[in-house]
């Protein structure tokens, strides 16, 4: 600004492909941009699983079709990109598949160039190759074909196709038609009219790479009929060529232990990924929709004073944790308030550690504390009873946990004659993901979500609050719960209850496999 001219603070646009649906097919670069963009402009092809990875604080602009409505016209999309970049924002333009494969990415870039807006292109995995791959169809194979061709089946306004069928048939390669469901009949006829053998293998592949993927294999002569019988609809691609016959042998995606399954996870984002990762490794599609998040109480003067008293107490004493988050927040708070763990464990009295379940115990082990008491069943009441049994009257129990923790923990301890301090470390805040809400409701209603996982009663309440108490039929929701207390909360809304055998992520995964696993 030393030249006296105000320079505009221009942002930048990343034109990125999101792949065909499976969140694992996002490139590392696109995943990084999803985490760091200020605003994300996306359309209908972006899967819910992918949308669920967008951080809550990122702004999103949907430019796809709403049911019944028309999509936002291309020139408007171009203008949105320009407008947002001119605000100085980091704009992620996220498109299905690859942005330059029938994605109109070129048109968007031309506008950016004319407005002198900086940009980068991040190629994506295109559906034209990945969808056949997930169906067990290699687009090339040395024994059958030496080329593959990607063609749009999108018809002109007058309904005709601008496809040179004679040339296509002569190429003798694998043909992949995008945007082709509504013009399937014309495409297949065009091919046979140009001399293709009606017995040539062909396939239509719907919603490829997602949990809902379907494959119909037939021949050029019979595909239309078979596809109609199966009720195939968009998005789908048509593949024509000898390689299609390989699908019967090479199919794999739906055969994975949780292939074809879709789960909704409601845990707080900070610990969602371990469960999500394991389910994805088993072939499931996972939508992450945290129903709650936690906020540490900071600074926590009450904790500081109580810990001093605890350290000075001369008799036997318990330090009690009831969640892995609580363990992490406890140590974060010590760090923040510069409290040395040795001062907490000081005094003549022996300090014992109580943990509500194995996940909490594991979190404690990470800090070098091996719990003395972990009840068999995960519940606050059981923990209270076990601690009481192991204690003498006059001992001191300091419980460090969430605000409004379960009251069941306290009575067994006070009845035994222990002094109890119950100090809140964090509070639970309900979260509503307005971007996902409608789509998730639709999926639940259509039975597209096999189960919802709940790891605490508050995730159940947060989920119901986010979805609306009367807006969906909770009776059709299968709730996989971490323990009895969580299950009781889910039962209040009439959900179908399944309870993990133990309160751990491993046991949750086991339960899900037992209920939904493919035993092929
Ligand atoms: N840029 C995208 C294609 C956009 S055109 C890409 O590279 O994949 C939109 C068409 O892509 C759809 O009509 C359909 O034919 C195809 N398509 C995209 N995702 C698909 C999926 N998951 N399963 C089947 N077809 C898909």
Folded structure, characterized:
- The N and C termini lie far apart (68 Å).
- α3 packs across α4 and α6 crosses α7.
- 34% of the residues lie in helices and 20% in strands.
- The protein is elongated, with a radius of gyration of 28 Å.
- The longest helix is centred in the N-terminal third of the chain and has 13 residues.
- The protein has 520 residues and is of the alpha/beta class.
- The strands form 4 sheets. Strands 3-2-4-1-5 form a 5-stranded parallel beta sheet, sandwiched between helices.
- It has 20 helices and 20 strands.
- The chain binds S-adenosyl-L-homocysteine.
- The site of S-adenosyl-L-homocysteine has 24 residues, from α5 and β10.
Question: Which features characterize this protein?
Answer:
alpha/beta, five-stranded parallel sheet, five-stranded mixed sheet, binds S-adenosyl-L-homocysteine
Gist of the model:
With 520 residues, this protein is an alpha/beta fold. It has helices at 28-36, 48-51, 74-86, 105-114, 127-134, 165-171, 184-193, 223-230, 247-250, 273-281, 301-312, 324-336, 341-344, 358-365, 380-389, 410-415, 434-445, 457-467, 484-492, 505-516; strands spanning 12-17, 39-42, 59-62, 90-95, 119-122, 148-152, 174-178, 201-206, 214-219, 236-240, 262-265, 285-288, 292-296, 317-321, 351-355, 396-402, 419-430, 451-454, 478-481, 496-499. The chain has 20 helices and 20 strands.
